[in-house]
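Structure tokens please, single chain.
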Amino acid sequence: MQPQFTTGQIRPIDCVKEGFRLIKQDYWLLFAITIIGAFIAGFSLYVLAGPMVCGMMLAYFRVFDGGRADFDDLWKGFDYFGKSIPVVIAVVLPIVIYIVAAFITLYLPIVLMAVSGGKISPDEILPAFFIGIIVDVVIALIMVTIHSFLIFAFPLVADRGLSGWEAMKLSARATLKNMAGVAGLIAVNIALSIAGYLAFCVGVYLVIPILMATNLAAYRQVFPRSAPALS
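Here you go.
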């Protein structure tokens, strides 16, 4: 049994407004839950990323459904540890590939030039450097595309209890049917992130709960809580 999804319902600016409206009363507690969850995920080398992300979303969904944020929801994410593993791999693997590609194509030539004591001329390095930039841009676009198709995967695991594989397939289908809305949502997320960086870089942390709420507001537009199930 899989949840039915709607099409043409994502309105990115409305998602920002609705998400912030829903979380503003519990903003600081959700901020703490999100930052601590992200820290634990990173400190564990993303082994615990699945339960941490699911736990964060449980806290946000509690607020979305009219309740108050509860820090204990973060630990309830461990109930979804197994189900979230495929989604974590699908999200983290492209990031690892991008980092490795960036090191090999951009930074390694510079390192080689430095350790060679100037034996490698800039004329030899520059072509490789520009090729590296092109390769990195292509990989970055592929990574963004993959992450776009998985934008609803974690919420489907936490909110509907789907397995990671089922959640990824359904997320990809829903994204394809809502491509314009998802693209607009990503553009809004990037704009909010840039605005956070411009606020002395500290603002980027403060905007994280708004980004989370915005994406979950979009999720609820695509997967309404009252939507019937499909076999």
